[in-house]
Amino acid sequence: MTSPSATLAIDEAVQARREAGHDVLHLGFGEAGVPVAPGLAEALTDAHLRSGYGPVAGSPQARAAAAGWFTRRGLSTEPGQILFAPGSKPLLFALLAAIGGDVVLPRPSWVSYAAQAALLGRRVVSVPVPAEAGGIPDPGLLEQALRQADAGGARPGVLVLTVPDNPTGTIAPAEQVEAVCAVADRHGLAVISDEIYAELSHRGTASSPVRYLAERTVVTTGLSKSLALGGWRIGFARTPAGVWGGDCTRS
Question: How many other CB atoms sit within 10 Å of the CB of residue 30?
Answer without folding.
Answer: 15
